[in-house]
Amino acid sequence: MNDCNNSNYPHYVNVFLFSETSPKIVSTERRDVNVRAQLAGHLCGIRHAGLAKLVGVPNLPSPVQDDTYSKWDKQLLEFVKSTSEKSMARAVEDAVATANTTDLTVSGDDFWQTRGFQSSHGAAALFFLHNAPQVLDIETCSKTCSVCKDKPVQKVEDLNHFSKRMKRSLNTIRREYGRKKLSDGKTIGGKNRLSGEYCKHGKFRCQMKRVLILFSSDYTSTSNDIRLNHSKVQTSLDLLHARSWAIFWHKYSTNDDPRLKFCSDEWCDYLKSVRDGTSYDHTSHALPRPVLDAIKRIFDSL
Fold it and tell me: Of 107, 152, 211, 286, which one is least surrounded by beta carbons within 10 A?
């Protein structure tokens, strides 16, 4: 609205304000909002198709075309790689300064691109164990390779996370055998075998779950030893290996053939009974030997 000098009445005039929707990235023709949207699409896992749906609902301008989006993806990857490498280099320097040594204690973790272990792509990362954990290194992995198509990919079960990986390995073996009869004429599943049932009192009926509990306990104990004193890593790993086989032979033992040389009287009821001069029956904890023979390969792969 303007006041005219020659009149006592106000006059309305059209005023147009022009402004950029988003600033340009330095040395490029790309807009900041487009770059941020593309990066957000990757972080959220929705990519171009998801972004198109997202902006379409509130009737916002659509993202760049798919072919342009793919071309910009390659440029974005270069910047992300450069930034991540600089970040991890700084993290290593900070970790060395904090620990006052290059002999760092780290923790590893891995993950798939999607849930359920069905994705062909994943990554593994190393973290510095401190009050403020930092990523020291990351490696991307794939089940497929466009260069080595003639090379078969053999999956190796990762047993580092015992309570989770051991369960997956046991379930894999149970599926492989299915209704096939073992040497004792029974299937691998069922009561007091590899079954997933519970009794009405809430106690575990499944021998597989008992094995998992023992594995989880041993792994937690050994992991704590490693974290407290990383100079004894090999000793702790040897101890974990011995404890794992102790579990196997403990389950393999019978009243006529006890095999408990790896066991400890801290948890083995049979050794406690020998120490205290009391009787003991292995039936309550033993797994049928045909079942143990079938799952022995899991222990061999430790």
Answer: 152
Give the residue among 68, 37, 59 at the shortest CA–CA distance from 50.
37
Its pTM surpasses 0.85: no
| pLDDT at 251 (0 to 100) | 83
- Give the pLDDT of residue 1: 45
Q: Is residue 223 in some structural domain?
A: yes
User: Residue 240 belongs to what domain range?
Assistant: 162-300
Q: How far apart are CA 90 and CA 148, in angstroms?
A: 35
Non-local (6+) Cβ contacts of 47 within 8 A are: 41
Q: How far apart are CA 173 and CA 166, in angstroms?
A: 11
Question: What tokens appear for 172 in the block?
Answer: 């894999």
Largest CA distance in the chain: 119
Strand partners, 108: 126
In a domain, residue 268? The reply is yes
Rounded CA separation 51/63 (Å): 7
C-alpha to C-alpha distance for 151 and 138, rounded to whole angstroms? 25
Q: What is the pLDDT of residue 31?
A: 80
Residue 186: inside a domain: yes
Do the Cβ atoms of 239 and 222 come closer than 8 Å? yes
